[in-house]
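During the reporting period the student researcher (J.K.) took over the structure-prediction task from the postdoctoral fellow and processed the backlog of single-chain submissions. One of the processed entries is reproduced below for the supervisory committee.
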Amino acid sequence: MRPPAVAAADGAAAASTLVRDSFTMPADDFALVDVLKGRALQVQRPAKKSELLRAGLHALSGLSPQALAKALDALAPVKAGRPKKT
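J.K. obtained the following structure tokens:
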């Protein structure tokens, strides 16, 4: 039996279990969410942050391993863990 995440990635399980998670990203990358929401609105397609992140994952899943590595290498490193409160 395949894990639910794999089945959902294949489109086999349309109503899969939802998982809640949190992560940290640079402010510039986070700002891209608003940019992409604006681009979606240009074609009358409102988008939620979670939809954009999911669409990005699906787009990355279509890359070759070499192209995926190149895309990952282009990211600025992020320190693991929660940022300190200021």
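The committee noted the following: DSSP finds four helices and no strands in the chain.
J.K. will present the remaining backlog at the next meeting.
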